[in-house]
Amino acid sequence: MIKTSPLQTALIAALLGSVALVGCKKKEESTDSNAAPAATTPAEPAPAPMTGTPPPMATAAAVNVSSVTVGKTAAADKSVAPAALFAPKDDVIVSVRTDGAASNVSIGAKLTFQDGQVAGEQSDTLNASGAETTNVTFKNANGWPAGKYRAEVMVDGKAAGTPQEFEVK
């Protein structure tokens, strides 16, 4: 009988465990060039084909606001001459020039007074296949209070274009 110390016993156990693990190792595939290729299964089934009309797109990433103008009157082509000073009874027209394609995209304008209070907010739906001008007209039957205002435009709920500032005296 051979005497072993506890350290030797631990080393022998570790060695036997290592040999056992190597013996349990998964057999690697051979690279036999004459063997038939292994069949592969697709990871996911192919999606079913769509039927009917596709749902309308709510947004169009191809729409960009090229300019925002604030004025008092609109011409026949919807263009607005820029104005920075308004009288209390003037209409405020926020003219939004867009480029690109749009299908049922929400376009809106918001007026804020100098203290941050919302003086007016309106929205419309944009359907365009190129350059388009959308005008949003704000009226105040009681007259606009004197002070500074800011007009902001949103397309599909996101800020767009450059905000415009004007004053009522």
Summarize the SSE layout with pairings.
Layout: H1 6-23, E1 64-71, E2 85-86, E3 92-99, E4 101-113, E5 118-129, E6 132-138, E7 147-155, E8 158-168
Defining traits:
single chain; 169 residues; mainly beta; five-stranded mixed sheet; three-stranded antiparallel sheet; 8 strands; 11% helix; 41% strand; elongated
Report on this model:
The protein is elongated and about 110 Å long. The N and C termini lie far apart (112 Å). The strands form two sheets. Strands 2-8-7-4-5 form a five-stranded mixed β-sheet, with no helix packed on it. It has one helix at 6-23, and strands spanning 64-71, 85-86, 92-99, 101-113, 118-129, 132-138, 147-155, 158-168. A hairpin with a 4-residue loop joins strand 4 and strand 5 (118-129). The longest helix has 18 residues, at 6-23. Residues 46-60 have low confidence and may be disordered. The protein has one helix and eight strands. With 169 residues, it is mostly beta strands.
